[in-house]
Fold this sequence. Notes:
Low-confidence stretches: none
Number of domains: 2
Keywords: Transcription, Transcription regulation
Pfam families: GRAS
Number of strands: 8
Oligomer: single chain
Number of helices: 7
Region (SAW): 167-242
InterPro entries: TF_GRAS
Helix content: 25-40%
Structural class: alpha/beta
Radius of gyration: 20 Å
Protein name: Putative ovule protein
Amino acid sequence: MRAGGPPELRITGIDLPQSGFKPAGRVEETGRRLEKYCKRFSVPFVFKAIAKKWESITLEDLEIQRDEVLVVNSLYRLGNIPDETVVPNSPRDAVLNLIRRIRPDLFIHGALNGTFNTPFFVTRFREALFHFSSLFDMFEATMPHEDEDRKLFEEEVYARDAMNVIACEGTERVERPETYKQWQLRCVRAGFKQVPLDQEIVKIVRNKVRSEYHRDFSVDEDGHWMLQGWKGRVIYALSCWKPTKQSVK
């Protein structure tokens, strides 16, 4: 047992504001579910909800306490932030610069590995077709047609995202993924260095996928990225970063 009991867990949840009179309603509901979970294990818990565009958040909004271990966890959402093809001063770079200024002990970055963010429609349509075909094929091979969760996900997530990629332009197109190699360049340019993957964890994940999941799922490495794919196509990429010493001075 830890002397003094479990440490306090503080989480700041960030989401885009919803329309209506409760702009932070969705992220606040997440906080309530987390609070119930922490109570089950007697973990002191504090949750702060922020409903703003990521690029408009300031350091003061986050209420950082320098005596705590700080982790920034961003899974597959940075690709929804406008890039320099929409706004001259890239909001993506602004968010990465804010994360660097926070000086986290660890920045966990999960990226949707997409190549359908080109302004040229035909190219974007073709790349989106390849991407979403892989996702639907994955469901077809692993879930029955009548599965309600599958129907919900296909109709409410995949169909919505595909429609946004194909039918929308300018600020209305919010699905703007980049490849993990493009994110590599952005993160390095913003003043981060990658943390090597724990090879024991990678081995455990690979063995689990091989023994318990469909044979067409894959887990690979490229540099310090862990790549998750289907039938040889990389769908998601995950890596960990820290600010360089020079960048936090």
